[in-house]
Amino acid sequence: METGNRSVVTQFILLGLSSDPNIQILLSLVFLLFYITAFATNSLLILAVSFNHHLHNSMYFFLICLSLINLCSPSITIPKMLESSLSGKNTITLGGCTAQIFFYLFLGESECILLAFMAYDRFVAICKPLRYLMIINRAACIRMISATWTVSGLMTALGLFFVRSVTFCSPNIINHFLCEIPSLMLLSCGKTSALDVLTMITTFMLLLIPLTLILFSYFRIIISVTKIQSGRYKAFSTCSSHLIVVTLFYGTAMLLYMRPRGSTADNMDKIVSVFYTAITPMLNPLIYSLRNKDVLRAMRRLPSLLLSCCQ
What we know:
Number of strands: 5
Mean pLDDT: 84
Domain G-protein coupled receptors family 1 profile: 41-288
Number of helices: 10
Distance between the termini: 63 Å
Number of domains: 1
CATH class: Mainly Alpha
Membrane topology: Multi-pass membrane protein
Radius of gyration: 21 Å
Order of helices and strands: EEEHHEHHHEHHHHH
Shape: globular
CATH topology: Rhopdopsin 7-helix transmembrane proteins
Strand content: under 5%
Pfam families: 7tm_4 (PF13853)
Helix content: over 70%
CATH superfamily: Rhodopsin 7-helix transmembrane proteins
GO molecular function, one term: olfactory receptor activity
Keywords: Cell membrane, G-protein coupled receptor, Membrane, Olfaction, Receptor, Sensory transduction, Transducer, Transmembrane, Transmembrane helix
């Protein structure tokens, strides 16, 4: 099919991380190592929390949800990258590209909202300890997680509707290792103003607003900690892990969606996406477990608990 002097495409070529096939294979093996590590560490964290009843509270409930996101995020891109490197076939259909964008955005937006709820949980635990169990109860946790999935799903579906309304023209080459809206829009034939406006609205709602709530929560936490006895310092120490995760996630997200863009995709997009899709999901469980004595103790007990369940 043709539009003007350009043919309309329904299949794209992903250039990957390198144009050298040997380097691409090497990088894919490194990604495979990241993938296995992320899968193993997040699975261990989920099992450790699930099998230890003293960890069945809101903080670890949110942590399990974060680990589930970190389990799924690498699965969006790394298997496709490995398949392309091994087969030499680096094409992806418009349908496959759309599916990749959906899950990539859905999980990313869910993590934005979830990190804000995790900060709110720590804020209530430290600043309002006597009312904590009344405010952050089981029903409240379920409502917060339901809101996370619902808002993320609706915003992602709306964005995907606009993506599918765009016509893409040749050349059908995406200078990336995954399908991502900014890189894909460079191949569009017509105007993308509606999608650009939606991207700005989504960035404000799901990036800047949650980040503002997180910063406000920790501002209040810091003020409270400076006024209280040492009893709550243990609670504040758990916040440091969350702050590291927030910095890693929001730092990469803001580099990806809030910096000026040229007419072509550049290597910065790839570097930031590598960090988000492969490195962060691997680091998050390590950050939470290595800095949390309760989680480390639960992980040490996990083999014996699993053996007792199998007997």
